[in-house]
Amino acid sequence: MTKLISLYTPFFEASDWHAAIMTSAGLMTILTLAIMECLLSVDNAVVLAAQTATLKDPKKEHHALMWGLWGSYLFRFIAIGLGAYLIKFWIVKAVGAGYLLYMSIHFFYEQHHQKRTKNKGEKPKVKVRSFWGTVATIILLDIVFSIDSILTALALDNNPVIVLLGGLIGILAMRFVAQAMIVLLAKIPELLFMAYVLIGFIALKLALSLPMIDIEISNTLFSIFVILAFGATIGLHWWRDKRDANKRAAANNSDK
């Protein structure tokens, strides 16, 4: 118990808080960590957007992100205190990679199944995830994705207050990114398919980073992949809109 308390004592040290928020070096480090959190969590934002979009209700989507935010904050506080032991938790990554792969495969299976049902003339069943199930998934996935960013932050600065504040700001920023992606998903339905392709890629990225494989796909490479996928999806959406507009115009001309 004494050892556990000693892990979290630095969070309440006045000197650590002073170094974090009352010095230019501390503030610059917090800003750096917040930016790093955003860069390391591009994959997290993709998954969050895809998960919350299944609620089919803007208010529930917003509330799910907020509840997930507070749950992630609590975990981040606990995890930074246990930072020295996180390196041993590769099994969390393995489970996370498996779950993300399941999510991706299950989504495309459901889409294929609904298409077959529609072709048979039956009404496809639209599955809507439960609110608390979505919140739990958001928190669990943050646990998976945060291990690398916490270890990176601890390597940059050993002041737990600085690491905590930088991480919390980064998490908040990523929630806004996820919220923006949800809005785009509503306007461009094809982005949902892109999101689940990316989730499959993220599962591969996590699996390859396991200690027994140790192949690292850099975040820069992943970000380039996201940009290319996003551009291709926007292009596909534009082409489909133009094609449908031409069909409507042709139909109107034939009616005259």
From TrEMBL:
<dbReference type="Pfam" id="PF03741">
    <property type="entry name" value="TerC"/>
</dbReference>
<feature type="transmembrane region" description="Helical">
    <location>
        <begin position="90"/>
        <end position="109"/>
    </location>
</feature>
<dbReference type="GO" id="GO:0016020">
    <property type="term" value="C:membrane"/>
</dbReference>
<feature type="transmembrane region" description="Helical">
    <location>
        <begin position="130"/>
        <end position="156"/>
    </location>
</feature>
<feature type="transmembrane region" description="Helical">
    <location>
        <begin position="219"/>
        <end position="239"/>
    </location>
</feature>
<keyword id="KW-0812">Transmembrane</keyword>
<keyword id="KW-0472">Membrane</keyword>
<dbReference type="InterPro" id="IPR005496">
    <property type="entry name" value="Integral_membrane_TerC"/>
</dbReference>
<comment type="similarity">
    <text>Belongs to the TerC family.</text>
</comment>
<feature type="transmembrane region" description="Helical">
    <location>
        <begin position="162"/>
        <end position="186"/>
    </location>
</feature>
<feature type="transmembrane region" description="Helical">
    <location>
        <begin position="20"/>
        <end position="42"/>
    </location>
</feature>
<feature type="transmembrane region" description="Helical">
    <location>
        <begin position="193"/>
        <end position="213"/>
    </location>
</feature>
<feature type="transmembrane region" description="Helical">
    <location>
        <begin position="63"/>
        <end position="84"/>
    </location>
</feature>
<protein>
    <submittedName>
        <fullName>Uncharacterized protein</fullName>
    </submittedName>
</protein>
<dbReference type="InterPro" id="IPR022493">
    <property type="entry name" value="CHP03716_TM_YkoY"/>
</dbReference>
<keyword id="KW-1133">Transmembrane helix</keyword>
